[in-house]
Amino acid sequence: MSARVLAKDVGPAGYVVAYELARANLALGQTVVADCVNPLQLTREAWRAVAADTYARVIEVEIVCSDIAEHQRRVTQRISDIQGLVPPTWASVQRHDYMPWTTPRLVIDTAFVSAADAAQSILDRTGD
Which of 3, 47, 58, 95 could form a disulfide with 51 if both were Cys (CB 3.0 to 4.6 A apart)? Predict the structure, then answer.
């Protein structure tokens, strides 16, 4: 399957589709993990609304990399395993709008935490 349709920024439409997919799955009693940049207060509020609409619990997690050189290395060395999908450039990451969070959330800094430890922190937060 080719992802050429995703070669350009899908913008708000991608979030709207994701909200509806999440809402449908939550309504079926499924667990949903939404892994996205979630850069704006508006998008964060929309995810919370999806959870509220379906009486689902929401756990918000902000993943950061405080080491700028490491962040740049990760972005520039990323290889896509999806045919036709081109990863973002460092310049595009730097241009991306990202509003600071104003609500409580779990913050994980991957400059200091391994992927396994990050996953465990998230699982611990679920209380399951």
Answer: 58
